[in-house]
Amino acid sequence: MSNRSTLRNRFSVLLAIIGVLVVSALLFAACAQKPAAAPAAAAPTRAPTEAATPTEATTTSMTSTTETTSTTSSTMPMTETEAMTTSTVMTSTEMTSTTGMTESGEGMAPAVMLYEDAKLGKILVDGKGMVLYIFDKDVMDKSNCTGDCLKNWPPLTASDEAVKPTAGDGVTAELGVIKRDDGTYQVTINGMPAYYYAKDTKADESSGQGVGDVWWVVGADGAKITTQ
């Protein structure tokens, strides 16, 4: 009897073990057959966008910008040196205009030439052809045209008394230089101060002839011509 109980107990234990193994095998099989969770879908990769070809409007805008930049560059303020240079040139031009139609300059000798006018005959002009005049109210080597008079009758000037005016072909008058009361130097024709007329705007024009019956053009020999 004892042996049978022992065998029965062992058989029960064996069955129990077998049962556990079977259950474990079934559970394992069930887990193995369960599909694995699908991996999360990757975010769709966005294809790189192809760079847009510049449209006509874009090209026009770029061109306009370039032109604007170019314009801005060309209108940049002048440097101090450039401004000074420009100012110097302008000042030089303005001074020439203000002092009248003068032939003189630093160390330059004013020229007195002969011009044959259809009405007045051979008369004296400067190196640029501007007609010269003398004033009846002047005296030898002395100018009496001052103040407002000089606005209409600017003198033919020289840089100083040492500069001798040059005489052109056919000019027989004696040319000289005097010092005016204002400290400037004026060319003389036979001792009489020589002037321009402000209303003569071009060479060979002689609209000052006979003005006030005291202003006259001058002949080759320095004598006044009173033909009108």
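That was protein one. Protein two is written in the same sequence-then-structure order:
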Amino acid sequence: MPHTIYGLPTHVLLIHVVVVLIPLGALFTALSAVWPAARRKLGFISPLTCAVALVFVPITTNAGHWLQNQIDPNHANQAIDHHANLADNYLFYAIGLFVISAAVWVLGRRFEFAPMPRPAGRRTDAPETVAGTGGGVSTATATRTQLQATRTVLPVWATALLILAAVVMSLLAVWQLYRIGDAGAHAVWDGIV
């Protein structure tokens, strides 16, 4: 891969791919874990987004190391080193996000996630209705009930663990990406603007 494109370091161009795909993949993963409709609609898009981001992370990091080695030693500073050190470990976050995203997708295809316990005082035996249907059960509810009846239900503890892992990993991946980007921005722009 070229280290520059039209005179610009490849790192400053590739980082935009990571900065867009990681938060998008994290959002898709968290939504797929907690919201069954999102899980059905997004399908394999969530792990695919995370996989593409995962491919770009080491490429971008490599391009960043090349750029770091091109900096005049008189301009090198601790901020650049801090940015590079944070970025060196980001591959583990990207791998974790992809693994969780793939797990949510695979388990969502094979199992129905157990419903979380409902708050006290709310009836659980009444069927959901759609306005304008005369109080009857809608076809969407009937189809969902038939689908749930044909698929094995993941235990509540496993569902809760999967949801927790997906949300936490999504937040960690985005937070660490923010920290890396913030350190890089300070390394480049502090004292200039």
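Residues 4-116+128-189 form one domain. Keep this in mind for the problem set.
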